[in-house]
Amino acid sequence: MGCSEGDTMVEACDADGNDRVFTCDAEGNFVQTDTVYGCTVQSEPGAGTRVCPGETFTRSCWPIAGGRARVDWECNGTSAPAGGGFTIVDEDYCTATTGPEAGMNFCPGEVIARNNCPANRSYFICPEDAEDGTAFASDTVLDCNIDGGMWEPLHRGVEMRRWVEDGHRFRAVRIDLCDVSLRVGATESEDRGERTSVWAGANDMLAAVNGGFYETDGSYAPDGCFAVGGGVEWPDSGDGPLRSFLALGEDQVGVTFAAFVLEDGDPAWTFAEEAVCGSAVVVAAGVGQPNGNPNPDARTGAGFSIDGNTMYMLTADEAGGSVPVTMEEFGQYFAAIEGVDFAISLDGGGSTTMWARGWGVVNTPSDGSERVVSNHLGVYIEGGLEGRHCSD
């Protein structure tokens, strides 16, 4: 097809994230005369992502003056091969007007809780359609019985439930792994040997539990356990025949049975970016599993829905007047939570701890105080483009 000399045509957003400019020559043919280079995201999450000139890149939750917001950056194209830079074109957030958070900015999905007891407990959420300084919306109102068994929001996609059943006291957290602002993290090797509350607070978690089994010689080395944090396997990690493990990575999650032993370099598990170990699979195919540990004790566990898009963490207390559970009973109660299809037990007894932002430690550790443990598992606001572990 011919063209008139001097006409221009732009091929937008090629495979390298650039615009290519063509000009019609004297023979009536388009020839490339210029390139408008796109932008490369420099920071995590999404470092290395290529954005074309004029297109936007969004963080679902990102630090701004006075707090955090959902931020849109537009790529400024440039003729320089090094690429262009980004300009903020939109910030969406809610601004708290009362209480200790007054004047602070929050991302869509973040929750503020108000303890109005003895009347009620109220929760307010920054709506998904928030714009500049949008008001919080009422999300949930619960009575003051914290063991009432109702799911209470910690963030969009993260809920906590506290209840007592048959004399056992349970604490559960449910996590939507497809929520764009969430990511699950496990302890990195250099951060081993901390209390769950200390690790969770330092890493700005929404909720967390203690992790896997470890040597008690002061090294906090995994005891026959696979351990990965921040995408790096611990140097003294090693899966043994008595340990199950739970792992998460990009677009994938998984649980192993105790009889499975991970071989070095096993390609089926190279996706693992975060992993903690356990002693047994307590729920399989939605059914609580029998096992050989009949001793009642405090328990911690974690698991997934069958599609891998929802994660659950559960503790059962041995303290505060509650009745401890056997491993088999723990699996039965875990399986009774709607949506749980696979779960393993983590380290229990005096190690059992669940922490939630705004509430602190929500169970009662059976040692009478919180124990220092090897590693941990928690959920935090990452602010990426999509749910990191979502298989959809």
Quickly list its features.
mainly beta; 2 helices; 5-stranded mixed β-sheet; 41% strand; 33 strands
Explain what the structure shows.
This protein has 392 residues and is mainly β. The chain is 4% helix and 41% strand. The chain contains 2 helices and 33 strands. It has helices at residues 196-202, 327-335; strands at residues 8-11, 19-24, 30-36, 39-40, 50-51, 56-64, 67-75, 86-95, 105-106, 111-115, 121-125, 132-134, 137-142, 152-155, 158-165, 168-176, 182-186, 194-195, 205-210, 228-229, 232-233, 244-249, 252-255, 274-278, 280-284, 287-288, 299-304, 310-316, 342-345, 354-356, 360-361, 372-373, 376-381. The chain has an 8-stranded antiparallel β-sheet. Strands 6, 7, 8, 9 and 12 form a 5-stranded mixed β-sheet that branches. A 5-stranded antiparallel β-sheet has the order 17-33-19-30-31, with helices on one face.
Low-pLDDT parts are none
**Overall 3D form:** globular
**How many DSSP H or I helices?**
2
Strand-residue fraction?
Answer: 35-45%
The strands making up the biggest β-sheet line up spatially as: 14-15-16-28-27-29-25-26
N- and C-termini, Cα separation:
42 Å
Q: Summed up, what is this model?
A:
The protein has two helices and 33 strands. The chain is mainly beta.
Secondary structure elements and their pairing?
Blueprint: E1 8-11, E2 19-24, E3 30-36, E4 39-40, E5 50-51, E6 56-64, E7 67-75, E8 86-95, E9 105-106, E10 111-115, E11 121-125, E12 132-134, E13 137-142, E14 152-155, E15 158-165, E16 168-176, E17 182-186, E18 194-195, H1 196-202, E19 205-210, E20 228-229, E21 232-233, E22 244-249, E23 252-255, E24 274-278, E25 280-284, E26 287-288, E27 299-304, E28 310-316, H2 327-335, E29 342-345, E30 354-356, E31 360-361, E32 372-373, E33 376-381
Parallel strand pairs: 8-12
Antiparallel strand pairs: 1-2, 2-3, 4-5, 6-7, 7-8, 8-9, 10-11, 11-13, 14-15, 15-16, 16-28, 17-33, 18-32, 19-30, 19-33, 20-21, 22-23, 22-24, 25-26, 25-29, 27-28, 27-29, 30-31
